[in-house]
């Protein structure tokens, strides 16, 4: 069994913000594979289904970003999913919109959601799919930037990266991670 987690903040206020690109990716993946995100427990919204012949749990933590690990840890424990069978999708300021990058481990790099996951899972060896949201233009502050909605002009780029994230997450199910990194990075 595999687990794919998209990081974001709950509530309509944050629904289409840069910080919620992980949630948007999970929604696109769920739609593509007909998986209903209809379960709500462990402080998360999630659904189970089949992708590439493997049972998968798609997860959107309903905690705020900086305590995402509080939702993910109990869900992994309940389904007996190893950390190495999980992929986490989230926003990255250091990548421009439309770019993505896979990593198999590393520090949180300043991302509070990843920091919480590392803390609750007890490891930095967390497979990640980082989706670019770019750096804010001056004088916009980072916190304001990640909590801003994508502009109309960015919608095409956003759709492109979400489509690519669906492809990567689908291939994650049955492709060794090093091969996945070589294919998409």
Overall body shape = globular
Into which percentage range does the β-strand content fall?
15-25%
The CATH architecture comes to 3-Layer(aba) Sandwich
Q: In order across it, which strands form the biggest sheet? A: 2-3-4-1-5-7-6
Question: CATH superfamily name?
Answer: Peptidyl-tRNA hydrolase
Stated plainly, the CATH topology is called Rossmann fold
CATH class: Alpha Beta
> Could you describe the largest sheet, including whether it forms a barrel?
7 strands, mixed
Return the domain count.
1
Computed over alpha carbons, the radius of gyration is: 15 Å
Low-confidence stretches: none
Backbone structural class: alpha/beta
Helical content, roughly? 25-40%
Count of individual helical segments: 6
Description:
The radius of gyration is 15 Å and the shape is globular. It has helices at residues 21-33, 69-79, 112-121, 142-146, 155-172, 177-184, and strands at residues 2-6, 39-41, 44-51, 54-61, 86-92, 100-103, 127-132. It is built from six helices and seven strands, in the order βαβββαββαβααα. The protein is an alpha/beta fold and 185 residues long. The mean pLDDT is 96. Strands 2-3-4-1-5-7-6 form a seven-stranded mixed sheet, sandwiched between helices. It starts with a strand and ends with a helix. The protein has one domain (2-184): Rossmann fold (3-Layer(aba) Sandwich). 35% of the residues lie in helices and 22% in strands. Strand 2 (39-41) and strand 3 (44-51) form a beta hairpin.
